[in-house]
Design a protein that fits this description.
elongated, single chain, about 130 residues, mainly alpha
Protein backbone atom coordinates (compact mmCIF):
# COMPACT_ATOMS: atom_id res chain seq x y z
CA UNK A 1 0.00 0.00 0.00
CA UNK A 2 1.25 3.43 -0.78
CA UNK A 3 1.12 6.46 1.51
CA UNK A 4 -2.07 7.86 -0.03
CA UNK A 5 -3.99 4.63 0.48
CA UNK A 6 -2.81 4.40 4.09
CA UNK A 7 -4.00 7.94 4.71
CA UNK A 8 -7.39 7.09 3.19
CA UNK A 9 -7.71 4.05 5.46
CA UNK A 10 -6.85 6.21 8.49
CA UNK A 11 -9.49 8.77 7.49
CA UNK A 12 -12.16 6.10 7.14
CA UNK A 13 -11.17 4.53 10.45
CA UNK A 14 -11.36 7.93 12.19
CA UNK A 15 -14.97 8.33 11.07
CA UNK A 16 -16.00 5.16 12.89
CA UNK A 17 -14.01 5.52 16.09
CA UNK A 18 -15.82 6.67 19.16
CA UNK A 19 -15.12 10.34 19.48
CA UNK A 20 -15.54 11.70 22.97
CA UNK A 21 -17.87 14.64 22.96
CA UNK A 22 -16.77 17.51 25.16
CA UNK A 23 -18.96 18.87 27.91
CA UNK A 24 -19.33 22.12 25.99
CA UNK A 25 -20.65 20.24 22.95
CA UNK A 26 -23.11 18.38 25.18
CA UNK A 27 -24.25 21.70 26.64
CA UNK A 28 -24.73 23.19 23.17
CA UNK A 29 -26.78 20.16 22.08
CA UNK A 30 -28.95 20.41 25.18
CA UNK A 31 -29.50 24.10 24.50
CA UNK A 32 -30.55 23.29 20.93
CA UNK A 33 -32.83 20.59 22.31
CA UNK A 34 -34.53 23.26 24.42
CA UNK A 35 -34.90 25.83 21.63
CA UNK A 36 -35.68 23.76 18.55
CA UNK A 37 -39.21 22.48 19.38
CA UNK A 38 -40.57 25.94 20.11
CA UNK A 39 -38.94 27.42 17.01
CA UNK A 40 -40.23 24.68 14.70
CA UNK A 41 -43.70 25.04 16.18
CA UNK A 42 -43.67 28.81 15.77
CA UNK A 43 -42.60 28.64 12.13
CA UNK A 44 -45.12 25.96 11.18
CA UNK A 45 -48.02 27.40 13.19
CA UNK A 46 -47.30 30.96 12.04
CA UNK A 47 -46.99 29.94 8.39
CA UNK A 48 -50.21 27.93 8.52
CA UNK A 49 -52.26 30.75 9.99
CA UNK A 50 -50.66 33.30 7.67
CA UNK A 51 -51.88 31.18 4.76
CA UNK A 52 -55.33 30.98 6.34
CA UNK A 53 -55.36 34.77 6.66
CA UNK A 54 -54.36 35.04 3.00
CA UNK A 55 -57.19 32.75 1.91
CA UNK A 56 -59.61 34.86 3.93
CA UNK A 57 -58.33 38.01 2.26
CA UNK A 58 -58.67 36.46 -1.19
CA UNK A 59 -62.23 35.37 -0.43
CA UNK A 60 -63.25 38.75 0.94
CA UNK A 61 -61.80 40.58 -2.09
CA UNK A 62 -63.44 38.05 -4.42
CA UNK A 63 -60.14 37.00 -5.96
CA UNK A 64 -61.03 33.34 -5.59
CA UNK A 65 -64.48 31.73 -5.70
CA UNK A 66 -66.00 34.86 -7.25
CA UNK A 67 -69.31 33.09 -7.82
CA UNK A 68 -69.96 32.60 -4.11
CA UNK A 69 -72.50 35.07 -2.82
CA UNK A 70 -71.32 34.60 0.77
CA UNK A 71 -67.60 34.71 -0.15
CA UNK A 72 -67.06 38.14 1.39
CA UNK A 73 -68.44 37.10 4.76
CA UNK A 74 -66.68 33.74 4.67
CA UNK A 75 -63.47 35.60 3.88
CA UNK A 76 -63.91 37.89 6.85
CA UNK A 77 -64.51 34.94 9.19
CA UNK A 78 -61.55 32.96 7.81
CA UNK A 79 -59.34 36.06 7.96
CA UNK A 80 -60.23 36.65 11.61
CA UNK A 81 -59.40 33.01 12.38
CA UNK A 82 -56.02 33.55 10.68
CA UNK A 83 -55.40 36.71 12.71
CA UNK A 84 -56.28 34.92 15.95
CA UNK A 85 -53.85 32.12 15.11
CA UNK A 86 -51.11 34.61 14.31
CA UNK A 87 -51.82 36.41 17.57
CA UNK A 88 -51.64 33.18 19.56
CA UNK A 89 -48.33 32.16 18.03
CA UNK A 90 -46.01 34.17 20.35
CA UNK A 91 -47.99 33.11 23.41
CA UNK A 92 -47.78 29.42 22.53
CA UNK A 93 -44.11 29.83 21.57
CA UNK A 94 -43.29 31.20 25.02
CA UNK A 95 -45.23 28.43 26.78
CA UNK A 96 -43.52 25.69 24.77
CA UNK A 97 -40.11 27.29 25.38
CA UNK A 98 -40.80 27.61 29.13
CA UNK A 99 -41.89 23.97 29.40
CA UNK A 100 -38.84 22.83 27.49
CA UNK A 101 -36.55 24.92 29.69
CA UNK A 102 -38.16 23.53 32.81
CA UNK A 103 -37.77 19.99 31.51
CA UNK A 104 -34.02 20.32 30.82
CA UNK A 105 -33.12 22.95 33.43
CA UNK A 106 -31.55 20.63 35.97
CA UNK A 107 -29.36 18.83 33.45
CA UNK A 108 -28.19 22.08 31.81
CA UNK A 109 -27.38 23.74 35.12
CA UNK A 110 -25.49 20.69 36.35
CA UNK A 111 -23.42 20.48 33.17
CA UNK A 112 -22.81 24.25 33.18
CA UNK A 113 -21.61 24.14 36.78
CA UNK A 114 -19.27 21.24 35.96
CA UNK A 115 -17.75 23.18 33.07
CA UNK A 116 -17.40 26.36 35.09
CA UNK A 117 -15.87 24.61 38.10
CA UNK A 118 -13.38 22.67 35.98
CA UNK A 119 -12.27 25.83 34.17
CA UNK A 120 -12.10 28.08 37.20
CA UNK A 121 -8.60 29.47 37.35
CA UNK A 122 -6.97 29.47 40.77
CA UNK A 123 -6.82 32.96 42.19
CA UNK A 124 -3.41 34.38 42.88
CA UNK A 125 -2.93 36.86 45.70
CA UNK A 126 -0.38 39.55 45.10
Amino acid sequence: MNEQELQEVKNIKAQYEDIEVSKLEKLKKLDQKVHRPSEVFAYVFGSLFTLILGVGMCLSMKVIFTSWDFGFYAGIIIGVIGLLGIGLNPILFKKIRANSKKKHQEEILQLSNEILSSNAAPETNK
